[in-house]
């Protein structure tokens, strides 16, 4: 018995109209595969043509990871200049800038795993450790800039006067008063 | 720290601080006092001929001459001539004149009646003025020009002088070569009578000798003696002599006031009258008109212990006889009489505590009567003497005003029975003042002390119990709340009582107890513009004549000491009654556990320190400080008993610390040497007697006062430099010195970080007892300082002000401490670090900025001492100055940073809050609708 021709709806289902939905944000319904545009097709054919080796991939990822690790250091001169320009007075702008100087390194250190997750492969795992250390070091540089700034603003309790309140008056083992006061 | 920099920047601004315009006359008060007015020299007088209104002139018992506006009691002018010897003060004025003439000691002075400016002054060398009269008429003709003054002088040579009314030049002098005691002068239109007391035998009575002189030449015309020696044994028995009427009279009485004898001066007849003999008479006062044209009627007032009565006498000029016209009945209340003339008519005003009545001298019918309103200021007091003015329209007295001195020292003007004003003249010449400590506040302090020494749990339980107990005051507090809130917003004045002082939130209402030289004790509320809460005479408690009472404050009562009696009196601070001896717990300065107490006194020109031993009253001499030979100790100053210090170091611009030398036992001794014209300042540690620092100044005028003060870690004093040594440096100097533990920053000196120290037994490891590092700077100031004090605040965080009294301008000045910082750079501009500290370049001349004057427009006379106290808030210190005048204010040396100023608009703030609330009410539904709509909107 020869198979009967598929019903029309099956044909329709197999060859969906190439119309684009208006709203791209809506997810495609289940079983629907949008047909590729020519450009996409060309691209996919090209990619599939030269699949990179895992080693190449790792080198690429390492390169990217180094870029990420060095990035805070690149911002440093700009930040330092900005800090220098704002002066040592207590103002809302300098306070905000100092606050970000402290916040960014800390947040970066906390989110270090997430930052380097895209570069994490079995091949790069060992080599990424050094990158992460450099990343933390560059962030510490940023922090050091913040501390320098805070110190310049006189907010660090580094001098004797900052601890004066904890120093007590001497007690005297004698008390002398005029006779009339007795 | 930057914060310090910011604070010191604020401190930089402090020198421009001044009294705000809206604070002046609200936070400060001034009693411009005269002193108790003298009866015979208090009168209403028109300041110049043709003037519509008259002023009230008086000379007080302390010889202050003043003119008072009778409308509101304000002082128009006042003169306090500093002349020695003191003696009786006289003040006379003549009709249609623009001067009044005073005589104090050896000076006869004419003042402009309207503004108190000096017109002329004559000095009767070597003698004192016994009496003063103005020659109203000469040969029966009134002079239009300045009227001449007749003065009676006693001393090396007695005599009568006539002084020219324009210049004060002596026109003639009559010298009395006899040994009689000059008594008084009296003038009639044609003759001047000089009355003296002639006592033939010592111990016996005196005869009255009357000498009549020619007004033109001063030659003796006649002389006669009245045999009064049976009655007059002392001057007090002469009741009256004078009256510039056509018939001047001379009245005297015997020792028991049984008989009054009256002589018309110029005749030899003596009329004798019996005094009303119902109850023993204490005093006889004669009131006679002082005008030439007045009818020759006079009134004799009899004061008894319970009441008073009077007789009115008429003089018949033709017959030269005195007759009794009528009697005014005795009243069983104490009162007094005053005399007032209108044209030729004479009126007598009778003033009692309850009413004022006026009778004519011609008949005893009462022409006007006004019941007097009761005033709390006059509770329990009776009139002592009065001066009156009456207005008569068509036979009826329409108005009468009397300036009455009451027995409690209040000088009151009663206008038709209403009290127009009262002046607390009893406060003049205060000898001592203290801040009273009220028992309730002390009780709380004691409770808190208990809590501090318990463990946490029991202290907490104690605290909860205390708060539950406090709840009993809650209903009353809640009841008063709306009223208080309203009062806060509207800011209306209210009467203060002692309760208010206890419930005062800001602690501005503090009680000052003032003792005067006359032995009066009064309590003033400094926060309520010096309202007198109570006022008592100390003779109620001790039967003695007070010379110079001094006070000490204890919790709930004050201790009064006086050189006239041994021991001390204890007066309740809140009521002015005697303190019950059961509740007295005397305690001197609190000493900590294990502390040794040393006391020191200045005796026989040396300062002696003695160790107080366990047994009461036994002391053990520890040290003696004797200045070098030739020097004499003039005084010493100590740190106040309560002198809180917030920070033990001074933070410099580079954030290092200079540690303050904080020794509670510092004593600053000032000594002078008249021979070499030097003044030396010795800083001693009074526990060990060790000399810590000394300074010497040459070319000092040692006769001038050297005021000094010491507070925290600095002291200051002032000197007058004599011109004899170096004319270019003549003037007054103010020297300020700071004491630090070490000259190096961040160094605590030889004692290091050890927390306890002793100057008596310095530990061997630390070497000799640590001496402070002293930094001094001196400034030239424009005027002499008579007294110095320092402001006090609750915790000592606020910067201090040096309060100085300048007697030459009658003002009190508060110099901010930063301005006279001895660390001001000399000869160079301050570095940025120094600028951050608020230091400016040193200038040798310290101009007394007019913004620093705490007294602004007030003229505070004769300030003897300034006392300061903390208030309830840290920024503010209370200041009270006393002496001749009373002055009080409050100062905020670092601005009032913890209280809203007067400029803050409470109503506006409330309105803003209300408007915002209403706005929220309207907007809330709109916002809710919008939020719901946005949820339902299809994207």
From TrEMBL, chain A:
<keyword id="KW-0256">Endoplasmic reticulum</keyword>
<keyword id="KW-1133">Transmembrane helix</keyword>
<keyword id="KW-0472">Membrane</keyword>
<feature type="transmembrane region" description="Helical">
    <location>
        <begin position="92"/>
        <end position="113"/>
    </location>
</feature>
<dbReference type="Pfam" id="PF06417">
    <property type="entry name" value="EMC4"/>
</dbReference>
<dbReference type="InterPro" id="IPR009445">
    <property type="entry name" value="TMEM85/Emc4"/>
</dbReference>
<feature type="transmembrane region" description="Helical">
    <location>
        <begin position="133"/>
        <end position="150"/>
    </location>
</feature>
<keyword id="KW-0812">Transmembrane</keyword>
<protein>
    <recommendedName>
        <fullName>ER membrane protein complex subunit 4</fullName>
    </recommendedName>
</protein>
<feature type="region of interest" description="Disordered">
    <location>
        <begin position="1"/>
        <end position="57"/>
    </location>
</feature>
<dbReference type="GO" id="GO:0005789">
    <property type="term" value="C:endoplasmic reticulum membrane"/>
</dbReference>
<comment type="similarity">
    <text>Belongs to the EMC4 family.</text>
</comment>
From TrEMBL, chain B:
<feature type="transmembrane region" description="Helical">
    <location>
        <begin position="907"/>
        <end position="927"/>
    </location>
</feature>
<dbReference type="Pfam" id="PF25293">
    <property type="entry name" value="Beta-prop_EMC1_N"/>
</dbReference>
<keyword id="KW-0325">Glycoprotein</keyword>
<dbReference type="InterPro" id="IPR011678">
    <property type="entry name" value="EMC1_C"/>
</dbReference>
<comment type="subunit">
    <text>Component of the ER membrane protein complex (EMC).</text>
</comment>
<keyword id="KW-1133">Transmembrane helix</keyword>
<feature type="region of interest" description="Disordered">
    <location>
        <begin position="745"/>
        <end position="767"/>
    </location>
</feature>
<dbReference type="InterPro" id="IPR026895">
    <property type="entry name" value="EMC1"/>
</dbReference>
<dbReference type="InterPro" id="IPR015943">
    <property type="entry name" value="WD40/YVTN_repeat-like_dom_sf"/>
</dbReference>
<feature type="signal peptide">
    <location>
        <begin position="1"/>
        <end position="18"/>
    </location>
</feature>
<comment type="similarity">
    <text>Belongs to the EMC1 family.</text>
</comment>
<protein>
    <recommendedName>
        <fullName>ER membrane protein complex subunit 1</fullName>
    </recommendedName>
</protein>
<keyword id="KW-0732">Signal</keyword>
<dbReference type="InterPro" id="IPR058545">
    <property type="entry name" value="Beta-prop_EMC1_1st"/>
</dbReference>
<dbReference type="InterPro" id="IPR018391">
    <property type="entry name" value="PQQ_b-propeller_rpt"/>
</dbReference>
<dbReference type="InterPro" id="IPR011047">
    <property type="entry name" value="Quinoprotein_ADH-like_sf"/>
</dbReference>
<feature type="domain" description="ER membrane protein complex subunit 1 C-terminal">
    <location>
        <begin position="711"/>
        <end position="936"/>
    </location>
</feature>
<dbReference type="Pfam" id="PF07774">
    <property type="entry name" value="EMC1_C"/>
</dbReference>
<keyword id="KW-0472">Membrane</keyword>
<dbReference type="GO" id="GO:0034975">
    <property type="term" value="P:protein folding in endoplasmic reticulum"/>
</dbReference>
<feature type="domain" description="EMC1 first beta-propeller">
    <location>
        <begin position="18"/>
        <end position="425"/>
    </location>
</feature>
<keyword id="KW-0256">Endoplasmic reticulum</keyword>
């Amino acid at each position: 018995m020869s198979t009967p021709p598929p019903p029309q709806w099956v044909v329709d289902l197999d060859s969906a109209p190439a119309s684009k939905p208006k709203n791209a944000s809506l997810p495609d319904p289940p079983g629907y595969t949008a047909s590729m545009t020519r450009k996409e097709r060309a691209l996919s054919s090209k990619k599939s043509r030269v699949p990179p080796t895992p080693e190449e991939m790792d080198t690429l990822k390492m390169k990217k990871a180094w870029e990420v690790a060095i990035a805070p250091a690149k911002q440093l001169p700009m930040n330092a200049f900005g800090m220098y320009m704002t002066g040592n007075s207590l103002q809302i702008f300098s306070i905000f800038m100092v606050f970000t100087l402290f916040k960014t390194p800390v947040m970066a250190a906390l989110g270090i795993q997430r930052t380097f997750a895209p570069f994490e492969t079995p091949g790069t795992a060992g080599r990424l450790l050094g990158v992460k250390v450099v990343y933390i070091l560059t962030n510490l540089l940023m922090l050091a800039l913040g501390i320098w700034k805070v110190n310049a603003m006189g907010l660090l309790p580094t001098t004797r006067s900052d601890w004066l309140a904890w120093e007590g008056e001497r007690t005297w083992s004698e008390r002398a008063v005029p006779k009339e006061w007795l | 720290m930057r914060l310090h920099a910011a604070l010191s920047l604020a401190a930089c601004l402090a020198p421009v601080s001044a009294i705000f315009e809206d604070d002046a006359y609200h936070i400060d008060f001034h009693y411009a006092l005269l002193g108790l007015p003298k009866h015979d020299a208090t009168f209403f007088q028109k300041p110049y001929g043709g003037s519509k209104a008259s002023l009230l002139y008086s000379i007080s018992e302390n010889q202050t001459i003043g003119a008072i506006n009778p409308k509101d009691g304000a002082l128009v002018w006042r003169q306090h001539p500093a002349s020695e010897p003191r003696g009786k003060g006289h003040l006379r004025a003549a009709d249609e004149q623009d001067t009044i003439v005073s005589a104090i000691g050896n000076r006869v002075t004419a003042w402009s009646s309207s503004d108190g400016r000096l017109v002329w002054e004559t000095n009767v060398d070597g003698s004192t003025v016994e009496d003063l009269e103005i020659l109203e008429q000469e040969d029966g003709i009134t002079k239009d020009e300045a009227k001449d003054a007749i003065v009676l002088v006693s001393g090396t040579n007695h005599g009568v002088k006539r002084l020219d009314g324009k210049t004060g030049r002596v026109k003639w002098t009559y010298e009395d070569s006899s040994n009689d005691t000059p008594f008084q002068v009296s003038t009639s239109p044609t003759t001047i009578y000089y009355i003296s007391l002639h006592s033939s035998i010592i111990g016996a009575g005196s005869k009255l000798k009357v000498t009549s002189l020619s007004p033109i030449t001063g030659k003796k015309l006649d002389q006669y003696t009245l045999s009064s020696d049976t009655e007059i044994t002392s001057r007090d028995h002469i009741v009256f002599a004078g009256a510039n009427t056509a018939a001047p009279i001379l009245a005297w009485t015997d020792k028991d006031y049984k008989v009054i004898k009256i002589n018309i001066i110029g005749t030899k007849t003596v009329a004798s009258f019996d005094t009303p003999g119902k109850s023993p008479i204490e005093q006889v006062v004669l009131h006679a008109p002082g005008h030439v044209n007045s009818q020759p009627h006079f009134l004799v007032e009899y004061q008894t212990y319970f009441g008073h009565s009077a007789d009115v006498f008429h003089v018949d000029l033709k017959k030269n006889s005195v007759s009794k016209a009528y009697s005014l009945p005795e009243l069983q209340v104490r009162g007094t009489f005053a005399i007032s003339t209108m044209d030729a008519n004479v009126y007598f005003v009778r003033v009692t505590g309850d009413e004022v009545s006026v009778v004519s001298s011609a008949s005893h019918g009462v022409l006007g009567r006004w019941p007097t309103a009761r005033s709390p200021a006059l509770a329990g007091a009776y009139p002592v003497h009065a001066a009156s003015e009456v207005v008569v329209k068509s036979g009826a007295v329409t108005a009468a005003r009397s300036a009455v001195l009451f027995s409690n020292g209040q000088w009151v003007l009663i206008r038709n029975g209403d009290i127009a004003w009262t002046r607390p003249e009893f406060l003049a010449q205060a000898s001592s003042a203290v801040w009273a400590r009220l028992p309730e506040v002390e009780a709380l302090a004691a409770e808190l002390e208990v809590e501090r020494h318990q463990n946490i749990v029991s202290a907490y339980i104690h605290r909860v119990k205390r708060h539950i107990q406090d709840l009993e005051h809650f209903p009353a507090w809640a009841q008063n709340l709306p009223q208080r809130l309203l009062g806060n917003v509207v800011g209306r004045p209210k009467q203060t009582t002692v309760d208010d002082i206890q419930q005062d939130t800001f602690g501005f209402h503090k009680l000052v107890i003032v003792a005067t030289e006359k032995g009066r004790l009064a309590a003033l509320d400094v926060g309520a513009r010096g309202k007198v809460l109570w006022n008592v005479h100390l003779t109620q408690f001790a039967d003695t004549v007070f010379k110079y009472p001094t006070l000490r404050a204890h919790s709930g009562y004050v201790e009064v000491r006086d050189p006239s009696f041994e021991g001390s009196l204890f007066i309740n601070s809140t009521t002015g009654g005697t303190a019950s001896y059961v509740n007295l717990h005397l305690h001197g300065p609190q000493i900590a556990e294990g502390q040794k107490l040393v006391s020191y006194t200045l005796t026989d020109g040396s300062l002696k320190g003695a160790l107080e031993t366990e047994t009461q009253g036994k002391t053990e001499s520890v040290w003696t400080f004797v200045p070098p030979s030739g020097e004499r100790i003039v005084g010493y100053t100590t740190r106040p008993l309560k002198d809180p210090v917030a920070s033990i170091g001074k933070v410099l611009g580079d954030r290092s610390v200079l540690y303050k030398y904080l020794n509670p036992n510092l004593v600053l001794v000032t000594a002078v040497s008249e021979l070499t014209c030097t003044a030396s300042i010795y800083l001693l540690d009074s526990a060990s007697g060790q000399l810590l620092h000394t300074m010497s100044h040459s070319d000092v005028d040692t006769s001038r006062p050297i005021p000094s003060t010491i507070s925290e870690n600095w002291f200051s004093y002032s000197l007058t430099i004599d011109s004899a040594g170096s004319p270019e440096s003549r003037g007054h100097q103010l020297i300020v010195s700071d004491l630090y533990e070490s000259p190096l920053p961040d160094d605590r000196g030889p004692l290091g970080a050890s927390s306890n120290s002793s100057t008596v037994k310095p530990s061997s490891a630390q070497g000799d007892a640590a001496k402070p590092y002293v930094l001094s700077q001196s400034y030239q100031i424009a005027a002499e300082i008579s007294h110095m004090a320092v402001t006090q605040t609750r915790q000592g965080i606020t910067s201090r002000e040096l309060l100085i009294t300048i007697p030459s301008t009658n003002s009190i000045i508060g110099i901010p401490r930063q301005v006279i910082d001895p660390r001001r750079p000399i000869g160079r501009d301050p570095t940025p670090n120094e600028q951050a500290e608020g230091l400016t370049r040193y200038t040798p001349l310290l101009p007394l900025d007019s913004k620093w004057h705490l007294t602004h427009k007030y003229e505070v006379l004769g300030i003897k001492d300034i006392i300061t106290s903390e208030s309830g808030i840290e920024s503010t210190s209370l200041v009270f100055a006393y002496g001749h005048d009373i002055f009080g204010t409050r100062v905020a040396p670092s601005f009032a940073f913890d209280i809203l100023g007067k400029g803050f608009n409470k109503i506006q703030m409330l309105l803003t809050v209300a408007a915002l609330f209403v706005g929220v009410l309207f907007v809330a539904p709109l916002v809710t609708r919008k939020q719901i709509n946005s949820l339902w909107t299809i994207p």
